[in-house]
Amino acid sequence: MSTAEAMDFLRSAILLAIAIGLPLLLVGLIVGVLVSLFQAITQIQDQTVTAVPKIIAMVIALVVCLPWIAERMVEYTKSTYEQIPTAIRN
Q1: How confident is the model at residue 55 (pLDDT cuts 50, 70, 90)?
Q2: Mean pLDDT, residues 15-41
Q3: What is the pTM of this model?
Q4: In the chain, helix, strand, coil percent, each to 5?
Q5: CA distance 37 to 26
Q6: Which 3 state secondary structure label does DSSP give 40?
Q7: Cβ count within 10 A of residue 64
Q8: Per-residue pLDDT tens digits for 36-47
């Protein structure tokens, strides 16, 4: 396996990790901003007010995105397994 092929595998893995994590992180960010805005308006400064809505929103986002995430991971795994024979020969 050449260095270019190894870097290609690594690049694909990193891009997949970013693509999989991005929807959940965006949901957490949006909910966090909304909760912070709510806290600033009402002057409620309790940590559970921040954590609980974020956890609930991220779990819901995970359930909604899970089929898409699984599909992407299966595609990547199949692609990686298909490239193994050519990587070994070189």
Answers
A1: very high
A2: 93
A3: 0.76
A4: 90, 0, 10
A5: 16
A6: helix
A7: 12
A8: 899 889 888 887
Amino acid, res. 48 = T
Q: Which amino acid, 5?
A: E
Amino acid at site 53: P
Residues 6+ apart with CB under 8 A from 32: 50, 54
Q: Can you tell me the distance from the alpha carbon of 90 to that of 81, in angstroms, rounded to the nearest whole number?
A: 15
Dist. CA 34–CA 76, nearest whole Å: 35
Distance CA 27, CA 22 (A): 9
**Token couple for 73:** 């991971």
CA distance readout (Å), 64 to 2, 28, 55, 59: 39, 14, 14, 9
Neighbours of 31 (CB within 10 A): 19
What would the DSSP string read from start to end of 30-76?
HHHHHHHHHHHHHT---HHHHHHHHHHHHHHHHHHHHHHHHHHHHHH
